[in-house]
Here is the input.
Amino acid sequence: MTPVIVYQGEPGAYSDEAAQTLFPGSSTRGLATFQEVFAEIDSNRARTAVLPVENSLAGVVQEVSDLLWRYTHLTAVAEHVAPIKHHLLGRKGTPVIRALSHPQALAQCARWLSEHDVTPVSFHDTAGAAREVAERGTPGDGAIASRMAAERYGLVVLESDLADDASNRTRFLVVEQGEGSSSVLTGVAKFSLGFVAEHRPGGLARVLEVFANNGMNLTRLDSRPIPHQPFHYRFYADVELLDAAQYSALVQELSHVTSELRPFGVYRPAQLTA
Here is the structure.
């Protein structure tokens, strides 16, 4: 039986592209919301999910971090960093005067759209925009989406690489059930976690000191409000471990300086690609 990889979005979305890159030959299936993706893995209806957690221009995807905190039986086992190439899709020979896409994609191509007098039109999903143009679009409609979306919906790439910043990248996590492979990893590793610092002066500093004292580089730190506790915050972090063997001792040490701790997973760092 072919393994099913789930993601949020429509077929041809950037998450679909990432899933097929990571798991060639696997069957991929898009779901409408991140909540549905997590529920699918949690209930064993799918084996693996590929989820965006951070974009180099738009920042972190907070909902994914919140769901990783909530679904305690799911673990991040790998990461993937993919360049995001936005293309203008449409019908051959038909000029585009309106471009449908996700608001973030439109914002990332704002300069190109302005210079070419193309009106941005917000849509819920990049691949969904391509499908809309292919199935119901009126003359003059185009979509900003991936090359995979063009192939999927029978559109042509009218213009390539529209993004105002060519460094645009999205970081994805591969999420599965279980505790992951921390016991067999060796060498440099990356650790994702959520925690609540002790609610007293220096509480967060004590957590950060643990990383510093162990020679670990903190690559991400952001905060989120805790529901039903006004003006109290949960933190999400990514840390580079010099050796995966540090993981167990680090978790133990952090448990003494936090009021809540949730390890999301330890995994091999992704290699950046052009």
In short: The chain has three domains: 4-83+169-177, 87-159, 189-267.
